[in-house]
Amino acid sequence: MRRMGVEALEEAFTRYGLPGIVNADQGSQFTAGAFTEAVLGRGIGLSSEATSFVSIARTQENC
């Protein structure tokens, strides 16, 4: 995923808070290391058709 896309993702996290899980399709922009690191590195679960659910315990809920 291009850096600009990761920046947009980070902006959404800042603006709306961290979700418990991000659902994405199998597009290369969603399976790229930068995208998965931006999601999983924050303790957010990542789900797609190609991967099994990554369970991460979350105590914060979206507002």
From TrEMBL:
Matching SUPFAM superfamilies: Ribonuclease H-like
Alphabetized GO MF terms: nucleic acid binding
InterPro entries according to UniProt: RNaseH-like_sf (IPR012337), RNaseH_sf (IPR036397)
Protein's UniProt name: Uncharacterized protein
